[in-house]
Amino acid sequence: MIIQYSEWADDFLSNQERLEQLFRLFSYLLTKTSGDVDEALEWMSRIDEEYNILGDMTMEQFIDELKKAGLIRENEGGRGPDYDLTRKGAQRIRQDALREIFTTLKKSGTGQHETPYTGSGVERTGDLREYEFGDQTANIDSTSTLSNALKRDGDLANFSLVEDDIRVHETEHTTNVATVLMLDISHSMILYGEDRITPAKQVALALSELITTRFPKDRLHVLLFGDEAREVNIHELPFVSVGPFHTNTRAGIQLARQLLKRKGNANKQIFMVTDGKPSAIFEDTGRLYKNSFGLDPRIVNKTLDEAVACRREGITITTFMVAQDPYLVNFVEELTKANHGRAYYSGLNQLGETVFVDYIRNRRKKFMDRRR
Question: Does residue 95 lie within any of the structural domains?
């Protein structure tokens, strides 16, 4: 290993911290510009002109730092954008989104999904039980095990240990979950000048990073729903944008249910982030029937039928509304009632916190509900 030394600079840490803050701001701008590196850099330049956020650093030097960190690369094709986002850059966006959301959360154990059941897990409950085949040797309690052996034999000179002597620490059972995250990409997510898609994307980015890093046994699917529903890879999330679409909630739930059907996980759930009522469904002929005015009973009833189908298959729908118009609230309440699910009405600033508190605690709530 080669270690390189350089002259100590008193402002080194502050410079590194400032660069880290600039990287986080750049990540947020990338989310807002749907992964357009050139546009995000243009925004950085404008903000710097107004507030001097780069300090003594020039824009060219900042771009060099981004390239050195492996977050962006030059487009060598000569056509299209000057810079592209790298895979490492996309991961950085997810990490920053996770960090941003978790700074608002209260302290809680987030290492695994805990349940009130005992069994295969990590956290010890304080209780002891007899050894069973497959128990981890690290959970053997040596004191009680040796004590049982001595009580049985009583002769140190001819000490022996049998399986019945062994006592192990009981641990909390942990479980894995299959989750589908549904993102509304209908036109209303940017209507009237209010940006609702950026915080919704931050939630998706952060949730994907949370699951892949902290809950690797869990499975996450992300799908977008507008006129129709389609699944996207987590690496595509930074590039998601809103289209001139209606809200086909039924198609989204249908696709989510199909994805979860393939999973063997005992726990299956849907998280739906939306700001509007369902305004479209596909007819049996394949034609898109749409009605943007009010709550169309034909559309609403077909959507509620899907919620009931999910309930019968043990799939819980948790709806996160980023708008609180009375007739929208009424629809969500009907959906929640049909599915026996959950609903949250939160502002854009609290959306991420609400999602993650529920995701981390959801397993405990679900099992406790079943035991009642």
Answer: no
Token duo for residue 83: 């810079």
Structural domain includes residue 101: no
One domain for residues 148 and 234 = no
51 and 65 belong to one structural domain: yes
303 and 334 assigned to the same domain? yes
Instruction: Give the C-alpha separation, 10 to 230, whole Å.
Output: 52
Residue 4 predicted with pLDDT over 60: no
Residue 3 lies in a domain: no
Tally of structural domains, the chain: 3
In 124-153, which positions are buried (b, 16+ CB within 10 angstroms) versus exposed (e)?
A: eeeebeebeeebeeebebeeebeebbeeee
Distance from C-alpha of 281 to C-alpha of 278, rounded to nearest angstrom: 8
Range of the domain at 231: 177-371
Query: Is the Cα dihedral 99, 105, 108, 111 positive or negative?
Result: negative
Single-letter amino acid, residue 367:
F
Handedness of CA 8, 14, 18, 21 (dihedral sign): positive
How confident is the model over 225-272, as pLDDT tens digits?
999 999 999 889 999 999 999 999 999 999 999 999 887 766 899 999
Q: What is the pLDDT of residue 2?
A: 52
pTM, entire model:
0.72
- For residue 90, what are the β-bridge partners? none
pLDDT band, very low/low/confident/very high, at 344 (cuts 50, 70, 90): confident
- Separation of alpha carbons 369 and 267, rounded Å: 13
The pLDDT assigned to 265 comes to 64
Domain presence at residue 150: yes
Question: What is the number of alpha carbons within 13 Å of residue 238 lying toward its C-beta?
Answer: 27
More confident residue, 251 or 214: 251
Nearest partner of 232 among 178, 198, 183, judged by Cα: 183
C-alpha span between 225 and 233 (Å, rounded): 14
